[in-house]
Structure formats: C-alpha cells, structure tokens
Amino acid sequence: MPRPTFPDTRTLQMPDSSFKVEPKGTIMGIGGWFRGDRGKDRDDQGVTVELTPIGGPPELDFLFIEVPAVDILRAIDGWKWLSLVGLTVIAVSAFGEVFLRDGTGAVFQIDTIEGKLSKVANSIRELTAMLQNSEARDELLFGGLVIGARNRGLILEPGECYDFKIAPILGGQMSVDEIEKLSFTVKLHIAGQLHEQVKDVPPGTTIDQVTISS
C-alpha cells in the first residue's frame, strides 16, 4: 500500500499542551529521519537481518509481521545511538518491536516504549518457550492490545504495524482505543529519534511540543 507521507516539518502537540519527561539533557528538533541509504542490505553498524519463524499458539501468526530486510535496516537507522553492533534481526512484532540476537545466540529487544535495548532471552529457543505463555506475549508483544485492535477492525496490511496515536513517552495512553496503524518503517525510525532526543532531558522538564523535520 502507499507509504504515508509527511510534510517537511511535523509537530506533535500534546493533549494538555505540555508533557514531562523522566530521563535527563536538552531536546531539539527531530530531523533527518530516513537518513540511511535506501538501497543497502546491511546496516552501517554491521546489523543484518535473518527473520526466524517462532512457533506456538495461533495468535503468534499475527503478533509478528514480515518486513523486507531493507525496510528493517532503514527503520533501525533511527536507533543507531544504541549499541547494535554485530546484532542480527530475527523478528519484528506487530507493534514494531524488533528482536535481535548476538553472536552467543542471546536475544535482545528494541523497546520502543522505554527507548532502550533489553536482553529478553538467552536463545531463540528460550524466547519461543517464553512466548507459549500469554503473560509473556502481553509483556513482549502487547498480545492483548493486538487482539483488541483486531477486534476493532484494525487488520494490518503489508508494511504496517500498530502504534499509539500519541507516543507514551509524550504522555499518550497505552489503551486499545488509542491504537492506530502506521508504516512500520516510519513508526520505528521516528520512535528512535524521539527517544534519542529526550533520553538526556532533566527529570521534570516540561516540553510544549516536539518537531520532526525531514
């Protein structure tokens, strides 16, 4: 389907005209998203893509999405400020959360809510075993929210993922009513730049708006 387009400058206005952040530094306009080369098949940090099927309950079929490798690499370019050197992408969730493994086989997750890279399992086998449990699916894949979104008629098309209308880091609510569909590449790249800009803002800082420039 056609990729969503944005004007050169996009302003995200908070519901109450302001929000407070918990991390620490300064905030600036979020610019240059999709800075990466659209034709490359390997990230500048050596990140590669080898999507791996994860078996289990039927709902896992829609809790993960298939995304072309080039789009995954374009999207994680917005997260280059994290240490992703040498990691391999193995899966992408319906909410655009990316799972990667390192050279030892350990599995990590790019957490788009907290804005960090977290170890979630010692191996793909261990991750698969974890995801047989509904609580783990809710924690790692937002399983309940995905089912709720589908029940609302929000069925993902190729290249799409779920997102919240207003990012939780900006004060948005993580509820079924606040879910929308968005291009995976757009969602993940912008989320990475957003977290990069707010990660060093002093606790309690009030920010009126965030501007995203192309």
- Give the tally of structural domains: 1
Structural category is alpha+beta
Please write the string of helix (H) and strand (E) elements. Answer: EEEEHEHEEEEHHHEEHEE
Q: What is the number of helices?
A: 6
Radius of gyration: 17 Å
Please tell me the overall pLDDT. 80
- Quote the distance from N terminus to C terminus: 21 Å
What fraction of the residues are assigned to beta strands by DSSP? Answer: 15-25%
Largest sheet: 6 strands, mixed
- Please tell me what the overall shape is: globular
The low-pLDDT segments are 1-40
Helical residues, percent: 10-25%
Number of strands: 13
Short description:
The chain has six helices and 13 strands. The protein is α+β, with helices and mostly antiparallel strands. It has one domain.
What do these coordinates show?
There is one protein chain. The chain has helices spanning 60-63, 69-76, 124-130, 134-141, 143-151, 184-198; strands at 9-13, 19-20, 30-31, 48-49, 64-65, 88-93, 98-101, 107-111, 116-121, 160-164, 179-183, 206-207, 209-213. The longest helix is centred in the last third of the chain and has 15 residues, at 184-198. By secondary structure, the chain is of the alpha+beta class. The chain has 6 helices and 13 strands. Strand 7 (98-101) and strand 8 form a beta hairpin. The strands form 4 sheets. Strands 4, 5, 6, 7, 8 and 9 form a 6-stranded mixed sheet that branches. A 3-stranded mixed sheet has the order 1-13-3. InterPro entries: T6SS_Tdi1_C (IPR015002). This is T6SS immunity protein Tdi1 C-terminal domain-containing protein.
